[in-house]
Amino acid sequence: MDGFVLSRPDHSVLTRGVRRSFDDAGAATHALSEGSATLIVGALPFDPSGATALYEPAEVTVTGSAWRSDTSVDLPHTHAVREIPSPADHLRRVEKLVTRLRDGDLGKVVSARTVELRAESPISPTALAARMATLNPAANTFAVDLSAAGTDFVGHSLVGATPEVLVSRRGNVVTCRPLAGSARRTAETEADRVAGDSLLSSTKNLAEHAFVTDWIRDVLGPLCSELSIPSTPELTSTHEVWHLASPIRGILRDPTTALELAIALHPTPALCGTPTTAALNVIRDTEEPRRFYGGAVGWCNNVGDGDWVVAIRCAEISADGRTAWASAGGGIVADSDPQDELDETTTKLRTLLTALGVSDTN
Ligand SMILES: C=C(O[C@@H]1C=C(C(=O)O)C=C[C@H]1O)C(=O)O
Question: Taking every annotated instance into account, which residue ranges of this chain make up the domain Chorismate-utilising enzyme C-terminal (predicted)?
């Protein structure tokens, strides 16, 4: 795809064309600080050792409202062809993780799985993003070309509608809104409310969430003169799931840019685990590479302001547009129930599958 879309409920950043691309976040940060680029957009991979897909765009449009696509392209008939790993294997993997977590050397590890989809004709990343923006108006919808990350990614794109904001910076104000702790929503209003209320009082989910706020405190604390992190999270929801969310706000001591903040915060325990390096190693050893799923998508300008959202509820689309890989995961702790965790990934996958008209795979 040509261009980049990040549509948030109250503004959007759209770009076309590429002046320069960066497979390394340090080079992009340098281009901003030396003044040779005025804006960087793109994606950071899940694994911080991987190549980035960052760009200095040729043309930029910023709007004061969510993006509304002016083209209407139909999405092709699409169906699931493969699950990586199979649901049974994911279940076994989570069971093993729970045993390991009970041994106590790790606090939390996020475990994810992928559904491979085949389309009858090419999926247009922009059309899919437009559909996702319409279906999920409260989410942050994105579409980003991954070509800059190297030969494995040429022509691939990442499209999704995420409820999670990694970090935003406006002047010296930094905000984050991590999510961790989830419960499936139901169609029946009273049962749905009960599901939300019990999430809010679930010791297991509150512990899962606290790993994330503790990490953000550790990273942002030294960079901020003031930092406000609520002592208990609030409830938020997508169509499919309830989540625990923490609105965090800080005042930066020094002019750290939004891109630098994103690099420092990523990967949070919402997508990786605790302790970070040990959890990352478990994910490297047990999963297929996540590529850009679980990474971050966003923009940063030469003043240092920007937004980076967490790349979840998304799919990578192949260069020919006929294959898509949708991924979803969930935080595993010592008292996680493996079947509930598998069901949670199935529920989270629905954000992407519904947009492509694919029904549940299990
Ligand atoms: C990993 C995903 O979601 C993350 C994990 C969550 C959890 O474990 O409860 C909640 C929101 C996200 O931070 C995903 O959607 O794929």
Answer: 88-348
